């Protein structure tokens, strides 16, 4: 059990990549706090994990709220008094807008969720990790922080800032054995992704070396590696899970 005895928090865990990560962490022995704004889907996932013999609990969490974040961390800490893993996965895509079309509300929402939400959650778990002598923080970013993509300026800028956040945090807390890494998914098939047969789907496939989109569980495997002690000498990295998109 690669995460046996560990406590993990996954934000944005009710759907898609976050859901797959939460399930994978639970399968490997972690007690998982599912933090999401979707109560129905979040509670259903917690129940499914529990029915399979795992440990999970849902806490309704809007990462733009410091109060919600504090409540989620407090709930997770009740298990053992520890927080071993934080996966900052919550995100807001919004609309596909270029500079002239992206308004202040879209910019604010992207920054509040992706960047400042990650900061709030990280700030809330760090006291636990420092006290216990270590931990792993996995920031789910995007290859859009690494390569240019059309009509998503606010989302891309917020995700790009997350790479800098990761590097700075890794440098500041490495001496305390707190590892901070970025995971950058490419095109992944989720409920909001283009569907097979769509022009956008075909375009995404064509950008990758493998010629296909990925599945959420493929990102979850990488998130498990970065959370586990198998990556004990890895911090401050940017790991693409993109079928070779960024290799082209």
Number of strands: 7
Low-confidence stretches: none
Fraction in beta strands: 15-25%
Biggest sheet details:
7 strands, parallel
Mean pLDDT: 97
Radius of gyration from CA coordinates: 17 Å
Helix content: 40-55%
Using brief descriptors, characterize the structure shown.
248 residues, alpha/beta, 16% strand, globular
Walk me through what this model shows:
α1 packs across α7, α3 runs parallel beside α4 and α4 packs parallel to α5. 46% of the residues are buried. The protein is 44% helix and 16% strand. It contains 7 helices and 7 strands; from the N terminus they run βαβαβαβαβαβααβ. The chain has a 7-stranded parallel β-sheet, sandwiched between helices. By secondary structure, it is an alpha/beta fold.
What's the arrangement of secondary structure elements?
Blueprint lengths: L6 E5 L4 H12 L3 E6 L2 H13 L3 E6 L5 H12 L7 E4 L15 H29 L2 E6 L12 H21 L4 E8 L13 H9 L8 H12 L10 E4 L7
Parallel strand pairs: 1-2, 1-4, 2-3, 4-5, 5-6, 6-7
Helix pairs in contact: 1-7, 3-4, 4-5
Short description, anyone?
This protein is α/β, with parallel strands linked by helices and 248 residues long. The protein is built from seven helices and seven strands.
């Amino acid at each position: 059990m690669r995460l046996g005895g560990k406590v993990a928090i996954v934000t944005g865990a009710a759907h898609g990549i976050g859901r797959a990560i939460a399930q994978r962490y639970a399968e490997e022995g972690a007690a998982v706090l599912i933090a999401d704004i979707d109560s129905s889907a979040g509670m259903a996932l917690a129940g499914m994990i529990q029915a399979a013999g795992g440990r999970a609990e849902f806490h309704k969490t809007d990462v733009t709220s410091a109060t919600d974040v504090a409540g989620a961390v407090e709930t997770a800490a009740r298990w053992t008094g520890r927080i071993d893993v934080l996966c900052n996965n919550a995100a807001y895509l919004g609309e596909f807008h270029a500079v002239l079309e992206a308004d202040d509300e879209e910019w604010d929402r992207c920054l509040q969720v992706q960047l400042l939400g990650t900061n709030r959650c990280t700030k809330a778990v760090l006291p636990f990790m420092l006290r216990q002598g270590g931990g792993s923080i996995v920031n789910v970013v995007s290859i859009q922080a690494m390569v240019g993509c059309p009509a998503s300026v606010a989302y891309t800028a917020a995700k790009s800032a997350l790479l800098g956040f990761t590097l700075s945090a890794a440098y500041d807390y490495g001496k305390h054995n707190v590892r901070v890494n970025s995971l950058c998914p490419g095109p992944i098939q989720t409920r909001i992704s283009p569907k097979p047969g769509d022009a956008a789907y075909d375009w995404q496939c064509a950008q990758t070396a493998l010629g296909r989109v990925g599945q959420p569980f493929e990102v979850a495997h990488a998130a498990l590696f970065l959370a586990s002690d198998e990556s004990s000498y890895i911090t401050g990295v940017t790991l693409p899970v993109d079928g070779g998109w960024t290799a082209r």
